[in-house]
Amino acid sequence: METAPRPELTGQLVVITGAAGGIGSAVTGRFLGRGARVFATDRDHDALAALQRAHPSSNLLSTASLDVSDENRCGEFAARLRAEWGRVDVLVNAAGYFPLTPFEEITHAQWREIVAINLDGPFLVARSLLPLLKASRAGRIIFFSSASIYAGMPEQCPYVSAKAGVIGLTRSLAKVVGKYGITVNAITPGLTLTAPVKKLFPADVLEQAAQARALERDERAEDLVGAVYFLASEDAAFITGQIINVDGGAEFD
Questions:
Q1: What are phi and psi of 248, to 5 degrees?
Q2: Quick one: pLDDT at residue 57?
Q3: Using CA atoms, how far apart are residues 228 and 219, in angstroms rounded to an integer?
Q4: Which residues are CB-contacts of 179 (< 8 A; sequence separation ≥ 6)?
Q5: Beta strands per DSSP E along 70-203
Q6: Exposed, middle or buried, 221 (CB in 10 Å: 0-12/13-18/19+)?
Q7: Which is it for the CA torsion 212, 214, 215, 220, positive or negative?
Q8: Which fold has domain 7-193+221-241?
């Protein structure tokens, strides 16, 4: 059930990629609930329609189909935002793709597809929207990496490699755009109990992940929303190039 927006982010213009996924939809709901205008993108048309149905009375939500790995589509989306908004205050890169594939069976085409979505995508979207972020008084870029970069995942070599690359992008881009007052940070979630994760991972693996945490429970999409919202807020104005690990205490390194 929708509630009346709280006014903390009234007037803020927020773009969220992968917004129709489990984590992305939770993040979208938080920003809408705080009064921000949100442009939610995803490559899943049906999921975007479901996201709009979840917020039927909101006049703050716009949606667009977007494949973040397609350079031309990212450029077209940026042009649309330039025409409709003129600036972007917050960019949240939540789009991701994480199939399980044994290393010796991975084809180069599969590797490229996974890396294209998880590493090329954040680069392409951030580069395309950078002129609009410069127009903001306090731009924010928030990437999603993964806590799997700390321990590794044997059947997710391309995914983990790409997410490690996001850390390098975060630290380097922060030094590029700081002169414009833009911050760049990343979040590394643990194994989060979304619909795709429940479909992909056996129940015993999810239970083991929960028991391995200092907080012995499943990680939910809602557990990540607070960190995203904080990094987008004025309270995080002097935080940039940083990685926030949100995994319930599974990794301390």
A1: 70, 15
A2: 74
A3: 15
A4: none
A5: 90-93, 140-144, 183-189
A6: buried
A7: negative
A8: Rossmann fold (3.40.50)
> Per the structure block, which two tokens stand in for 222?
């809602």
Q: Is 180 assigned a catalytic role? A: no
pLDDT > 70 in the chain, percent: 96
Q: Report which residue type is found at 130.
A: L
Phi-psi region at 181: left, alpha or beta (left = phi > 0; alpha = psi -120 to 50): left
Of these residues, 97, 150, 159, 180, which one is catalytic?
159
Q: Are 45 and 20 a contacting pair, CB within 8 Å?
A: no
- Is 251's pLDDT higher than 80? no
**Domain coordinates of the chain in residue numbers?**
7-193+221-241
The per-residue b/e assignment along 15-40, b for 16 or more CB within 10 angstroms, e otherwise, is bbbbbbbbbbbbbbbbbbbbbbbbbb
Instruction: State the pTM of this model.
Output: 0.93
Instruction: Compute CA distances 222 → 27, 133, 135, whole Å.
Output: 8, 26, 30
Position of tokens 């190039």?
A: 241
Greater pLDDT, 250 or 121: 121
